[in-house]
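Section 5.1 Outputs to date
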Amino acid sequence: MRVRINAKMSESMAFVVCLTLAGGLQDAYSYNCRGKVFVNGQTGNIVLLGQNLAEGNWIRALDYLVPLLAFITGIYLAVRIQHRCQEFKKIHWKQIILMIQILLLTAVGFMPESLNMTANAVMSFTCAMQVNAFREFRGLSYATTMCIGNMRSATEMLCKYHVTGDKTLKRKSQYYYFIVFIFAVGAAIGAVLSRYMGNHTIWITAGLLAVGFILMFIKSDIQKECC
């Protein structure tokens, strides 16, 4: 059968695992290889930005301000791409997002440590695009690049299951906890690989995103098995 673009594959288990592994790996990479900055979750960067501003560490504050601004820019651009490209037939707008991520993260792997601020800004930018483009899994809102929302949803549904006995809520809770677990696995992999591959570790993240890109090209008779 003819291979076609399948947007629903972005909600399949295989796709979510690839992107969540990539998210955890990238966060560990930025912390271990790029100056102990978290490029995925911006809450910590906001706190450290405020702390360094309060202490008068203006230069150090830039290490946290730049990724934050890049994150905001990434979300804005992702929304623009969605609106301008959602009618494309030969490629899905979410695949355009993945292509941009793959290219930029590949470039990060070539950047020396003297360009850590630039590398962190690029990773924050791509992370924001991923957050905005991929946020549904089997009818659930989720994130592949951070855990706090997933943990909150998982625990809320677990509690509601214990109160109501609704097994659907139990299954949804398990999905969320599974995503959190996969993120932790990705972070562990990133921490280990960073010791051996150094700055090139980010290429593993790009590779996982490339797998996700390919997964959106599937035969229609495989869709039910994957989703």
